[in-house]
Every structure is written in C-alpha cells, then in structure tokens.
Amino acid sequence: MSDNPTRGIRFGSPRSTHLHEADGTGMGPPVPEWVEVSQTLDRWFAFIDITGFTAYTEEHGTQAALEVLARFRSAVRQVTGRRGVRVLKWLGDGVMLVSTAPGPLTAAVCEIATRFERDPFDVHAGIAGGNVLLFEGDDYVGPSANHAARLCDAAGPGEVLALDVVGHLPDWIQIDDTVAVHADGIGEMRPAVRLSVRPEARPVAPESGVA
To answer: Which pTM does this prediction carry?
Structure first.
C-alpha cells in the first residue's frame, strides 16, 4: 500500500472564505463571478488494497506481481462498471472508489474481496460516507474519504470494514461483528462493522475440466 493513499484528495476546510453552497440540483440561481462555488454532496468512499503486495513481489518476482495487479484491476473495473460505482483513483496496489449510495459500493467491495479468496493473496478494504464538498469539480473535501482510508489500513487480510452502512446492505451481505479502530490523526473512531458475503450467496466455481 502506498505511504499516502489520499494524496491529491483534499481534507479540511476549503481555502475560500466566500463559500456559497450549491443546491445540489443544478437549478439554483446565478451567483457572482467572483464567488467560488463548492457543492455539498452525499458520497461514499472505499479503499481496497492487495494485502502484502510487496512481500508477494519479493517472493514470486516482478512478473508474477504484475499479473496479480492486472487481474486485480480487471476485477475492479468489471465489478464497479456493472454496479455503477466509479473508480476515482488507482493507488499502485490499491484503488479508491466513490459512489452516490452505500448499497452499490458495499456490494462492489464485498464481491471484489470474495473473488480473491482462493488466491495466494488477499485484499482488504474500508468503506465510509457522508456529506462532502465537491471543490473545483474534482476534489472531495470532508472526513469520509479519510475515514475509509484509515479503515482499510486497519483491516486484516480479506477483511472489509465499514462505517454507517447498517440498513443499507444487500441481503446477501452479512455483518460478522463490530471492530474498534484507533487511527493516526483521528484517534478512536466510531465502531466499524466487519462485512462478508453470506455462504449461500458465494459463487460456486466450476469443477476442473468443466466448460
């Protein structure tokens, strides 16, 4: 995982002191040209990383590591494209996702995590959401993305940790337990939930030799 997974994503207060919030519909009245407008939105973020990618590279070599990375990115593109979730940023051996709703995002993350359960490597992920400001069209300002990154850091191999998703989960995703997370720069976070795909919903791989 990169040292700074949120590089390029701004957190904290916008730099303009003359902030006029847009109404979120695109139908608001005109504003003076000297006013910098940032739009308040509800967005959900996820970080997914390959567990132990550096160690895997050392043990199996660069070519094997590149094949893992290519397969990971292919799976992310397939799943997010089908579920309407956006890849916001690739982060070396990880990815940052954004969605307008928690349901599709948790579905995408849990499906991606399940795809690699039979492989010699795992992925781990963190999910969080809430109100953010869309700043200058391509930066999200608010704590949600930072929380998702810290949850990903805290997740163990194969784990998906999430905040505030209770009541928004597909029926094939279960909550296994709650987890206390202490994050650098944040301190003790609100309890997160550990998510997994229900056993009966897991895809069954075809037997060897079956087309």
So the answer is: 0.78
